[in-house]
Amino acid sequence: MPICRTCQGEYARGERQCPRCESDVVAWEKETFLWGIIPGLLPSAAALLMLIFWRRQGPSVHHWMVSLMSIAISLLVFFGLYGTPPAWRNRRWASQVYNAPRPQIIMMIAATFIGGIAMAIASFVLYKTSRPPVEFWQQLIFGAAYAPIYVLFTAAFTLGAIQAHLSHLNKRVPLPLFVDTERLLRVTIKTALQSLNIPDKSDNYKILEVNRIPETGGIKVRLLLPERQAYQPKRHSQAGKQQGGKRCNIEADRWGRVKLVQTKKQETE
Predict the structure, then answer these.
(1) Per the CB 3.0–4.6 Å rule, which of 28, 112, 150, 206 could disulfide with 47?
(2) Burial zone of 252 (CB within 10 Å; 0-12 exposed, 13-18 middle, 19+ buried)
(3) Taking a C-beta distance cutoff of 8 angstroms, is the pair 215, 229 a contact?
(4) Which of 84-98, 176-190, 215-229 has the highest mean pLDDT?
């Protein structure tokens, strides 16, 4: 079954709304990152064209295996990053909601781009200063500077496309569940009540306390469950005592997945 990217819950294909968090799943299904393929694959295409150039140069400081290796690694980097925009988006919002490190995507773009330029300059200098006959150790040194050019530019261009896509996503799709405490609270209570076989109706519980967990973005909730929802027949009378229902302590993670449900009988004199 498809996974809702707002709450990480499952929904049936064809549904327009997630049954768990009630968010719009169609908005996510319409989103694609196909345009990110172009900048991400440009360095690999450039490496392939440069391979044709080097082959025409004859024996030189460049070895053809270096180009093949740079293309292979660049493709691995591209495909490793291509499917990660939702994860980057969740990490970015997490850093604003709870104690999570902010992803330094801009710094990574700058570092990889500058690194690629530095390696390109070094390769150019090594190429211009090499004289035939070229020794194997010279080819190793040149390869160590040449191959990272395309790998670093692949990372920079793909991360740049991801950065642009993140800004687009924030305007088009729902925010992650953990960003909105009210929605997270609603999903958590609904899940906990289902585990207790209690209908999810507002008159079946009373919210006593709600706290977010700053370390993980999770949530802790204390509920009062009226006596009519207790797990024993209602007593018409008790000498000296009035049934007060049950207190329910709930703990869930940032996606509303309940980790703990504890109920305790409450009695009042």
Answers:
(1) 150
(2) buried
(3) no
(4) 176-190
* DSSP state, residue 175: P
**Sign (positive or negative) of CA dihedral 179, 181, 187, 188:** positive
Number of H helices, E strands in the chain: 7, 4
Q: What is the C-alpha to C-alpha distance for residues 196 and 206, in angstroms, rounded to an integer?
A: 15
**Contact 245/268 with Cβ under 8 angstroms?**
no
Count of C-beta atoms within a 10 Å radius of residue 59: 9
Mean pLDDT of 33-59: 88
pLDDT of residue 167: 86
How remote is the C-alpha of 59 from its chain's centroid? 47
pTM: predicted TM-score of the whole model, two decimal places: 0.78
Which DSSP string corresponds to 79-121? HHHHT-HHHHHHHHHHHHHSS-PPP-HHHHHHHHHHHHHHHHH
pLDDT score of 202 more than 80: no
Cβ atoms 47, 150 nearer than 8 A: yes
| Model confidence pLDDT, tens digit, residues 50-62 | 988 888 887 888 8
Phi-psi label, residue 58: left if phi above 0, alpha if psi -120 to 50, beta otherwise: left
Q: Which of 142, 154, 131, 123 is nearest to 63 (CA)?
A: 142
According to DSSP, the β-strands at 242-252 and 219-225 are antiparallel
Q: Taking the CB of residue 150, how many other CB atoms lie within 10 A of it?
A: 28
Which domains are seen in the chain, by residue range?
Answer: 32-172 (no CATH), 179-268 (3.10.450.630)
What does the DSSP assignment read for 183-196? HHHHHHHHHHHHHT
If you average pLDDT over every residue of the chain, what do you get? Answer: 87
